Amino acid sequence: MSHPDFELYDNVGRTGEQTAAARSGIATPDDLLRWARRDAEPFLGEHSVPEGPLPSPDLAPYLKALTAAATPAEAHAVTDQFLDAAEPVLRAVSDYLVAAAKRNGRYLDAAPGSPPRLLMEAASRSLSIMHIADEASMATLRAHYDPAPAPAAPNREQSPPGLPPAPPSPRPGR
């Protein structure tokens, strides 16, 4: 590799992973991120984007209500309201990932496992958590309100499981 940051003799301050990667001629994830930050600095100077994490929603009311929920219906009500509140944020994450996948038309001819396809998969999964959480909540309600029927009582003429069948009843006249 001919990158100036990747000279073999310059191992001062490098981790063992970085030194081993340099010997193999590959970059570590830290190297890739450092190079990308350096190369994107002028671009970010022209295109200001907020730094740091997005504002986190206040979960305290949901957690307090969930802790106080005594029935599956009450827990479902809290979870359902939380999912409704979280959906716009998750949809925004999904929309951004789709836009990143489609950037410059890269997605149309992308091979499975390629970055655009992985971004589309991540977009889909970011929304699937809503479906999975709703499915879990509905299963809890079903178990509470509409449980599966209890197994039928064993027939006395039938042997319990694991035992050989009962001998046939004697026929009259024999």
Shape type: elongated
Proportion of residues in extended strands: under 5%
How many alpha or pi helices? 5
Biggest sheet record: none
Q: Which stretches are poorly predicted, pLDDT < 50 over at least 5 residues? A: none
CA gyration radius, whole angstroms: 30 Å
- Helix percent band: 55-70%
Global structural class: mainly alpha
Q: What's the number of extended β-strand segments?
A: 0
Alpha carbon gap, first and last residue: 97 Å
Question: What does this protein look like?
Answer:
It is a single chain. This protein is mainly α. Helices cover 56% and strands 0% of the residues. It has five helices and no strands. Helix 4 packs antiparallel against helix 5. It is elongated, with a radius of gyration of 30 Å. The model has no long low-confidence stretch (mean pLDDT 83).
Keywords:
single chain, about 170 residues, mainly alpha, 5 helices, about 55% helix
What topology does this entry show?
Layout: H1 16-24, H2 29-46, H3 60-68, H4 72-102, H5 115-145
What's this, in brief?
With 174 residues, the chain is an all-alpha fold. Helix content is 56%, strand content 0%.
